[in-house]
Specification:
Elements (H helix, E strand, L loop, with lengths): L4 H36 L1 E6 L5 H19 L2 E5 L4 H9 L5 E3 L2 H11 L2 E6 L6 E6 L14 E4 L5 H13 L6 E4 L3 H9 L5 E5 H4 L4 H4 L2 E6 L7 E4 L5 H13 L4 H9 L5 E3 L2 H4 L19
Parallel strand pairs: 1-2, 1-3, 6-7, 6-8
Antiparallel strand pairs: 3-10, 4-10, 4-11, 5-8, 5-9
Helix pairs in contact: 2-9, 2-10
Length: 295
């Protein structure tokens, strides 16, 4: 039986339309699948443990949720229990984003290609040595032969820099005691386990007033650019840009300013390795670095 030409044309047209529709659907699914999987993949975010894990979680979790809501990317906060373990983590490239001290930035760039992407533009980082207020120690030279506590061997302003200065500038010998965190370092001195302790102004100011009132600043080191947020070289540039823009935008709201104050970055600005941190290579602090893998 011969088909009607019009019906035959309708069948062909419908077949073509279905084919085109299926191709459109397939193309849309092909585009959406990687976007969905990308959005669901969490980027690992770590923070140098200057404070306790509870404090790190309290201060950084709200910021990460705000960045997630703003950018659509997912972030997972990984908390290290000590600075040494944090160093092992970035030495093997574990975190995608890491907030670290300036000399860690030099180490991390050399070992894994981390790049600083944001830092605080309001304040610089100044290392300090503190003693008890009632201590008979009046000058740095009085620490000769004493025990001095530091957060960790490679905490830049609170340990590396002052240890180098104690040896090279003041020419004294002492016994270093590594307390794992800034808070522990201060408490070692308060409990008379050490004669002095290394730290930085901003961590001392975060301690309870009653603790601060029992300590006296004996010495402060030259100031440098503050701790940066760094990104591993594997993180796509569009993700880095989104994170930068999202954090900087927080300065525009009261809630955002509160978050930035909590993470000690009240005025975030774009960081640059060559401008902000490269000069630290010339301090030859490698003589005082203890390799993170040699616990």
């Amino acid at each position: 039986m011969q088909r009607h030409p019009l019906k035959h044309l309708q069948v062909i047209t419908m077949t073509i339309s279905i084919h085109i529709y299926l191709r459109i659907i397939l193309a849309a699914v092909t585009v959406c699948i990687p976007l969905i999987s990308h959005a669901e993949k969490p980027y690992i975010w770590s923070v140098v443990p200057q404070f306790t894990g509870v404090a790190v979680h309290r201060d950084w979790s709200p910021l990460l949720r705000a960045i997630e809501n703003d950018t659509g990317y997912k972030f997972e906060l990984k908390i290290y229990e000590s600075i040494r373990k944090f160093e092992v983590g970035f030495a093997i490239g574990e975190p995608d984003f890491a907030y670290m001290n300036p000399y860690h930035t030099v180490m991390a760039k050399k070992e894994q290609g981390y790049e600083p992407i944001l830092r605080d533009g309001k304040r610089q980082l100044t290392g300090i040595l503190v003693t008890r207020k009632d201590s008979p120690i009046k000058k740095v030279e009085d620490l000769a032969g004493m025990k001095i506590s530091f957060p960790s061997p490679n905490a830049f302003a609170a340990s590396l820099y002052p240890r180098a200065l104690l040896s090279n500038q003041f020419g004294i010998q002492y016994t270093p005691v590594f307390a794992k965190t800034h808070s522990n370092s201060y408490r070692y001195t308060l409990l008379n386990k050490t004669s002095a302790s290394g730290g930085v102004y901003r961590t001392l100011e975060r301690e309870r007033p009653e603790l601060q009132n029992q300590l006296r600043v004996l010495f402060k080191s030259p100031s440098t650019a503050s701790h940066p947020l760094t990104a591993h070289k594997r993180v796509p540039q569009e993700v880095v840009n989104a994170v930068q823009q999202s954090i900087i935008a927080l300065t525009g709201t009261k809630e955002g300013k509160s978050m930035l104050k909590a993470i000690l970055m009240p005025q975030p600005v774009v960081a640059d390795y060559d401008r902000d941190y490269k000069m630290l290579q010339d301090l030859h602090l490698e003589n005082y670095v203890i390799n993170a893998n040699n616990d």
